[in-house]
Design goal:
This protein has about 90 residues and is of the alpha+beta class. Helix content is about 30%, strand content about 30%. The N terminus is likely disordered.
Length: about 90
């Protein structure tokens, strides 16, 4: 992991967003300065709920809580929460 801590946000898109609108939104989010990457977790799933799940990786110097709050303010987003930190023992 190249010495940088990866901090992430779990993102759930609204259930009424179209596939093309979702792709456009995720491209826009990917262009934010605080964001390193955005990916849909199961874009081809037969389950609609799984198709709406996304993962956002923020930059090392970004505040994931602030980015999640900004994401949650978007009308197309159902929820956005910083992912829990997990440590291997």
């Amino acid at each position: 992991m190249s010495g940088r801590s990866r901090r992430s946000i779990s993102l759930v898109l609204g259930d009424d967003i179209s596939q093309s609108a979702a792709e456009g939104l995720l491209e826009t989010i990917a262009d934010w300065d605080e964001v390193e990457a955005v990916e849909r977790l199961k874009p081809d799933s037969v389950q609609p709920t799984l198709r709406r799940l996304c993962h956002v990786t923020v930059t090392e110097d970004a505040d994931p809580v602030a980015v999640a709050a900004r994401l949650a303010d978007l009308p197309e987003v159902e929820s956005a929460e910083p992912s829990s930190v997990r440590r291997l023992i």
